[in-house]
Specification:
alpha+beta; ATP Synthase, domain 1; 2 domains; 5-stranded mixed β-barrel; 2 helices; 24% helix
């Protein structure tokens, strides 16, 4: 059995990643999920959180994704998401500012509460990944 498989991360605007990987870990709606070569077919709703790609060349890449779907079938994994940001583009300062702004909007959200909670959850995930990466990133703008 092959050790690596094809993985792609796609947003409405572009393909963010397209390559061979040995392992992928991502936040599904109901918990963390890992995929290896030979994975049975699966369709899962993505949560907001980080994706770790252990590439076939031995390097690991990290992305922050904003929901969507994951489909494993025929030796491939596709992650289709609204937004995907490479971890090296994340800014810890920016994440902290976004989290504070979303927290401030909670009290006055009214009918927009679901959107504000979503923004808060995304900012929390961004902050966590930026902290994990050591805050090395530059200024982040949503890729795709």
């Amino acid at each position: 059995m092959a050790r690596s498989f094809h993985c792609s991360i796609v947003t409405p605007a572009k393909a963010v990643f397209d390559g061979q990987v040995d392992y992928v870990s991502f936040q599904a709606w109901d918990g963390q999920m890992g995929v290896l070569a030979g994975q049975s077919a699966v369709l899962s709703k993505l949560g907001i959180g980080s994706v770790r790609l252990d590439c076939a060349d031995g390097q690991s890449k990290w992305y922050l994704v904003d929901g969507g779907f994951a489909q494993a079938a025929d030796g491939q994994l596709s992650l289709i998401t609204e937004r995907a940001i490479a971890a090296e583009k994340l800014s810890l300062e920016e994440a902290r500012a976004e989290l504070a702004e979303a927290a401030a909007r909670i009290a006055t959200a009214g009918p927009e509460l679901a959107k504000v909670e979503h923004d808060q959850q995304f900012a929390l995930a961004k902050k966590a990944l930026a902290e994990m990466m050591g805050g090395r990133g530059a200024t982040a703008s949503a890729a795709g």
